[in-house]
Specification:
The complex is a heterodimer of chains A (305) and B (260). Chain A is α/β, with parallel strands linked by helices. Chain A is built from twelve helices and twelve strands. Chain A has two domains: 227 residues, 3-Layer(aba) Sandwich (Glutaconate Coenzyme A-transferase), CATH 3.40.1080.10; 31 residues, no CATH class. In chain A, the strands form two sheets. In chain A, strands 1, 2, 3, 4, 8, 9, 10, 11 and 12 form a nine-stranded mixed beta sheet that branches. A three-stranded antiparallel beta sheet of chain A has the order 5-7-6, covered by helices on one side. In chain A, α4 links the parallel β3 and β4. In chain A, α3 crosses α4 and α5 crosses α7. The model of chain A has no long low-confidence stretch (mean pLDDT 97). With 260 residues, chain B is an alpha/beta fold.
Chain lengths: 305, 260
Amino acid sequence: MVDKCLSLREAIAEYVHDGMSVAIEGFTAFICFAAGHEIIRQRRRDLTLIRMTPDLIYDQMVAAGTARKLVFSYLGNPGVGPLHCLRRAIENGVPTPLEIEEYSHYGMVGRYIAGATHLPFFPLQSYFGSDMPVVNEQIKFIESPYGNGSVALVPPLTPDVAIIHAQRADRKGNTQLWGLLGVQKEVAFAAKKVIVVVEELVEEAVIRSDPNRTLIPGLIVNAVVQVPYGAYPSYVQGYYDRDNVFYLAWDALSRDEKRTQAWLEEWVYNVKDHAEYLRKLGSETLERIRPGSAAAPAIEYGAYE
Amino acid sequence: MSYKNSANGAEYQPDEIMIVAAARALEKARTVFVGVGLPNIACNLARHTVAPDLELIYESGIYGANPARLPLSIGDPTLVTGALSVIPMADLFGLYLQGGLVEVALVGGAQIDRFGNLNTSVIGSYTHPDIRLPGSGGACEIAINAQRIFIIMHLKKRAFVEKLDFLTSPGHLHGSDTRRKSGMMGAGPELIITDKALFNFENEEREMQLTSLQPGVTLEQVYAEIGWNVKLAGTITEAPAPASHELRLVRALRAGKLPA
């Protein structure tokens, strides 16, 4: 049997190299902080970071000096405020200048779809009259060859590596995810390599018992890593809630470059891995973000023999 | 500054009058695209008051949310549990929004001009911004494809400007029929809700015009917060003050408690 299981350290060492383009996706949910922190620990440089909503993870990765460029569509700490490290990088070049390439949400979604399906571009009803195409010449317009109006275009996007967090997968990488679906499927199919990080490793029989829930097939997965709470402080539907206390704390501490670097030192560089990070956080934190139960009843697929 | 309702003596904050006005404007609406912040509260209030059949759509990929707490963000897990449908963002923007199924979208911005064009990208120049703002998110395509746009913003001189630093999401572009000619599907901005006054675009130029003042607000206070000579509608009315049951609900929502 193909066993794609690696430790997170091994997976990052093998698949994420200096200068690559990396997409850690997951819209507000399923954001793989564990992988982002491991990339910081392994001191990768000159990455092109791709994410619709950079969120705290790219704020941290840019503050740590891993990135040369950011491709994105919404730059905010969701529900809280701005991302201060990214603002420092863009407004003042601190700690290093950061090139940006900016789209709208649907533009990013379309770029992944074009990348995944080998289309030369993705057409969408957006950007009319906006200044976005003025500052990003990758966004273009064409007249429809069918004579029924003009349409905006965005180019394909094929990240070198996509990192996706989910509830569970088998050892071949067949991955099941429920909750906000975001663009995880699209980015996984668009990327050249895929690392899947999961809360639970399960037998293939578990996957086969509920095939409608499989978002990403093992066919396109290169590495499977089990990291419980790997999306903390973001959340995994049904497993844990977002730690909003941390999102608020980051808003305060990340305003100051020195405090940011001290936080990275204490919570990323000076911890061995995500398990140690969780031990340092303490069980009260994990207890605080445990959701109540809202289970869906099992459904009947039927046996057809 | 806080306001007082002369009819019932209730005191309320500028935010609260905006939330209540936005919720009232959603009467009879079937679907609404919900943004972060005040729109989030307004849409949830509408569901509990004037629009019980309103389905909440969040750009994170939710149709028909039924949140058990006030969502911390548009990607809160409480929006998933109990929703009618959870959908990939490709389908949310493609089938729902571009498919024309979003009736109203509530949006805001850091700057707005007289034609309802919005800036959520930068203050200053794009390449060397004084303040880097979040950017579009889904706002650009929402402004283009939703059937009707309601804008909700505090009336401030630094926000209501003669010229935007950056046009992120189109309103009526240069006014008159420039929006329609550009091929946009939705009708564009219809209403602006602020803490001091309400505006619409019901004139040939498709230019924002004052229609009502919030209770106790004077015309001069409105003029002082707009960076151009704002148009006035034929008659200017006083907007109805928030009722006490609306204020109770707003405060419960903001405290994170949703009425059953």
